[in-house]
Specification:
This protein is mainly α. 76% of the residues lie in helices and 0% in strands.
């Protein structure tokens, strides 16, 4: 992707032993901003994915640790939302295309043209989404300047020289309690509930990863277990979306063409049900006291 300006190079500094609140927050914000700027220069699926992850991590960390920032965190988080949405739009197209392309080999040769036509249509939609992202990046310079300032020297509250391992873990624990509460809600978990659990898992994982250099390997192991939950629920979400698109498209086609999409929709349904069976086991592995002692 080409913006109308050159993204600044963000320096990510090594942490000292027993890092302070300020050192940890600065490093976390600078790493995510550097990752974002690096990947906004590309338009391939991996660059889009990495830019989206960086934007999500920035927004999540600005939310989790906002009480330690003097002001403007909520505004910056809000101003990143349009970028997150546009990157998400392109990424969703990519995920659908990749999933369907991976499954097309199960079809008979005679049934593949209708799927190839659908993939072509989604490829064009991706290009349209990419154009909208390009247009937005033409207005991104002011926000990029602000992000650079925050990455280099975030506005920290008094006491930012305190030990990070004492101050930051309780803020991550708040995120954990919200996730735990969502999981404990009675009744079956529908797609919306599982998506919310996925979002909350992502937030607590990002918080743990920011704090990990100060508290040690337990936070790393917690974050790794959270990533597994996030991946399983991500597969569930992608399967739900894929199934919905395939079924709605099949309903508009003649029966002889709809059969192929029906086969692919069936595979998405199988993957959705697999994820529904896997996520609770993955969460049980995350929900172990020994992984949370650092909080």
């Amino acid at each position: 992707m080409n913006a109308t300006f050159t993204f600044p190079e963000i320096q990510v500094h090594d942490l000292p032993d027993d890092p302070s609140v300020g050192a940890l927050l600065t490093r976390g914000l600078s790493r995510s901003t550097a990752r974002l700027f690096t990947n906004l220069s590309g338009s391939d699926p991996e660059s889009i994915h990495q830019a989206r992850v960086a934007t999500r991590r920035l927004r999540s960390d600005l939310r989790t640790f906002r009480s330690l920032l003097t002001g403007g965190a909520s505004t910056l988080r809000r101003d990143l939302k349009p970028l997150a949405a546009l990157l998400g739009e392109v990424r969703d197209r990519d995920v659908f295309i990749i999933r369907i392309a991976d499954n097309v080999e199960v079809l008979d040769e005679a049934d593949r043209p209708v799927v190839e036509a659908l993939l072509g249509a989604y490829g064009r939609r991706r290009e349209e989404s990419l154009v909208r992202l390009h247009v937005y990046l033409g207005t991104f310079e002011e926000l990029a300047v602000r992000l650079t300032a925050w990455a280099c020297s975030p506005p920290l509250e008094a006491g930012s020289d305190r030990r990070g391992r004492k101050v930051l873990p309780p803020l991550v624990r708040r995120r954990w309690r919200r996730l735990e509460s969502a999981v404990r809600e009675p009744g079956p978990k529908d797609g919306a509930a599982l998506h919310r659990i996925r979002v909350l898992t992502k937030r607590v994982r990002y918080g743990a990863e920011l704090v990990a250099p100060a508290v040690g390997r337990k936070a790393d192991r917690f974050a790794a277990a959270a990533a597994i939950v996030q991946d399983v629920l991500g597969d569930h979400h992608d399967a739900v979306v894929g199934h919905r698109v395939l079924v709605s498209t099949a309903r508009r086609l003649a029966p002889r063409y709809a059969v192929a999409l029906g086969q692919l929709a069936g595979l998405e349904l199988v993957q959705r049900r697999q994820a529904e069976g896997d996520w609770e086991r993955a969460f049980a592995a995350l929900n172990r006291k020994e992984l949370r002692k650092w909080m």
